[in-house]
Amino acid sequence: MNRIAVLAFGHASVDLYQGAVPALVPFLVAERGYGYVAASGIVLAATLLSSIVQPVFGALTDRWRMPWLIPVSMTTAGLGVALSGVGSAYVTTWLAVALSGLGVAAYHPESARLARIASEGSHVRMSWFSLGGTLGFATAPLLVTPLLSVAGVGGSPYLVVPALLGALVTVLVIRSVRAGGGGGPAAVTVPGRDDWPAFLRLTLVIVSRSIAYVGLSAFVALYMGGGLAGGLALFVLFGGGAVGTVIGGRLAARFGRIRTMRAAYLASIVAIAGVPLAPGWSAYLFIALSSMALYAPFSLHVTLGQDFLPNRIGTASGVTLGLAVSAGGLASPLIGALAEATTLRLALGTLVAFATLSWLLSRTLREPAVETS
Question: Full-prediction pTM beyond 0.90?
Answer without folding.
Answer: no
